[in-house]
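Protein: Gamma-glutamylcyclotransferase AIG2-like domain-containing protein
Species: Streptomyces griseoflavus Tu4000
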Amino acid sequence: MILPFFVYGTLRPGERNHDLFLRGRTLREEPGRLRGATLYEGPGYPYAVEEPGAVVGGELVTALPEAYPGLLAELDRLEEYVPGDPRNLYERQARDVVRTADGTAVRAWVYLAAPAVAARLRLGGRPVEGGEWRTVTP
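Structure follows.
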């Protein structure tokens, strides 16, 4: 399934992983909102955790068609995601993301905190006020 990516942390424009992974490989990057998730601070990067009523801000990134297969594999490695691996930090899931510009919902890949990580964050993690990672980083 070919979907855009919703990025909310170090892959956003201006953040450290954007140029390393996305520059020159995208067709479009546009602001979006993921509803039903809370953003938590992590060790140098954030985690989106499913939680009704909350919202996470980020960008919808549409990859160039020729770049998509390689980009998907690289982002899975970056996020340490292996399908079915119980040691995953993140799980890649298809979710509806709302385009900020026009309010349309778009199905996109989102890396959400894996269940064990999410449980730890819900118990003792620090939520990011307003769901915007840029408010945390210098």
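Remarks: The longest helix spans residues 68-78.
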